Amino acid sequence: MSVEQFTTLAAPVEAEFKDKGSRFLAFAYPVQTETAIRQEVLYKREQHHKARHWCYAWRLGIDGNRFRANDDGEPAGSAGRPILGQIDSAELTNVLVIVVRYFGGTLLGVPGLIHAYKTVTALALQSAEKIQQDVCRQLQLSCDYAHLHEAMRWCKQQQVTILSQDLQQQCQLEVSLPLARFQSGLVALQQLRTIDVKLIE
Q1: CA 154 – CA 111 distance, rounded (Å)
Q2: Residue among 94, 93, 198 nearest 138 (CA)
Q3: At CB < 8 A and 24+ separation, what contacts does 54-57 make?
Q4: What global pTM score does this model have?
Q5: How many domains does the chain have?
Q6: How do residues 119-140 score in pLDDT, each as one tens digit?
Q7: Does residue 88 sit in the same domain as residue 9?
């Protein structure tokens, strides 16, 4: 049975945790792509350039295969893994959490670090509003301009999200179709013989 919805964050959230002078600032975001994740991590490094560490973890998609945990100089497994563990405990995906650490002069040890990164991430995710989103597949539609109205009518009927459109003599639309309506939507589309369809992996 395929999963048709997933849970993610409705909006970015922040939280703070202090231990022996060190400040841990957690920033949690809904994200769609690895490009967006890289940009957000770079932005946080610039914004908090006086911090000691910028540790993070993220998970994308519903297959469980796209994730990363980064300790950014902290002892191995003491930062990124605890952050990812909290994302997974909350059963979230398409989520990035960055924890910025300002060192307070006292070493916390590996157990102390694990506790701090885990706690501040949990505080951020607990305070966040969660939303259910549809799992979607992306399609590319191609047709002559004369038949564009048929493609647009199909888009409206199926309540798809149009991701991009190139409306020249030969029109191309990239659309996102919820998995729950994918088969029926595809059948309806294939009956429109004037429109070519390609699945975008």
Answers
A1: 56
A2: 198
A3: 54/98, 54/99, 54/100, 54/101, 55/79, 55/80, 55/83, 55/98, 55/99, 55/101, 55/117, 56/80, 56/83, 56/96, 56/97, 56/98, 56/99, 57/81, 57/83, 57/84, 57/87, 57/96, 57/97
A4: 0.77
A5: 2
A6: 999 999 999 999 998 888 888 9
A7: yes
